[in-house]
């Protein structure tokens, strides 16, 4: 690890779990309580935009109230000590940025941002106010949360750069992701095939655990600060 010149990291909901943000799968996962097909796809939004906005406001409020954890901070430090570094995240909570990471590729968008369904104009402030009208763009069309929903394409440029980082790195981490949602799920394997040393950090074994070089079972908020200290001599 110490000799790695190019490092790429893929994170999933597990990295924010210790901050109090619920994950998607597993016992307390969001998809156990809510139906993705009613909340996280474009047709559902157009059918019932108010319901979808209320769900996103609920998650935004939750995220507003939480702070990054030691796992996020360790990754921000890792960026400082590695000559080349990319943080690829499936998370929409913005906690990596809050922790100080800068080279972030947000595969699934950002929950704090909205965008117009027609002209694509973005906004950081628009949301459904309590008891209010649905948020609209200057062009008159509906604003939607700027996140990737089921059946939608990922932002092309971000995706291209993420695969490039996976192919070109010599050390790749897959952290706190169940590694079942494509195309992110294939990134650790793409990195491995291209010759990188691949390390997984997760509280449970996943579908890729057998294929990676090292699978570390534990919470990212505990494992990552230890890794940082052992490999790079850096404390947070
Ligand atoms: P999941 O909920 O599928 O997986 C979270 C993973 O984190 C699981 O494998 C847990 O074992 C692990 N985990 C939980 N707590 C942890 C901790 N403290 N430290 C380390 N690991 C921990 O979440 P994702 O893999 O991120 O997509 O899900 C991928 C995508 O599916 C999400 O981005 C979302 C969802 O549908 C969209 O909304 C487009």
Short recap of the structure:
The protein is of the alpha/beta class. About 35% of the residues lie in helices and about 20% in strands.
Tell me the name of the CATH homologous superfamily of the largest domain: TPP-binding domain
Bound molecules: 2'-O-acetyl adenosine-5-diphosphoribose
Strand content is 15-25%
Determine the fraction of residues in helical runs and give it as a percent range. Answer: 25-40%
What is the CA-based Rg, rounded? 18 Å
Q: N-to-C terminal Cα separation, in Å?
A: 18 Å
Q: Helix-strand pattern, N to C?
A: EHHHHHHEHEEEEHEHEEH
This entry's quaternary arrangement is: single chain
Looking at the structure, what is the overall shape? elongated
Tally of distinct domains:
2
Strand runs, count: 9
Major sheet attributes = 6 strands, parallel
CATH architecture of the largest domain: 3-Layer(aba) Sandwich
Description:
There is one protein chain. With 236 residues, the protein is an alpha/beta fold. It has 2 domains: 6-20 and 68-108 and 154-232, Rossmann fold; 31-65 and 114-147, SIR2/SIRT2 'Small Domain' (2-Layer Sandwich). Helix content is 36%, strand content 19%. It has helices spanning 14-17, 30-33, 36-39, 42-47, 49-64, 70-81, 95-99, 156-168, 187-193, 220-232, and strands spanning 6-11, 84-89, 104-106, 109-116, 122-123, 143-147, 171-175, 197-202, 214-217. It has a 6-stranded parallel sheet with strand order 3-2-1-7-8-9, with helices on both faces. A 3-stranded antiparallel sheet has the order 5-4-6, with helices on one face. Helix 6 runs parallel beside helix 10 (220-232) and helix 8 runs parallel beside helix 9. The mean pLDDT is 94.
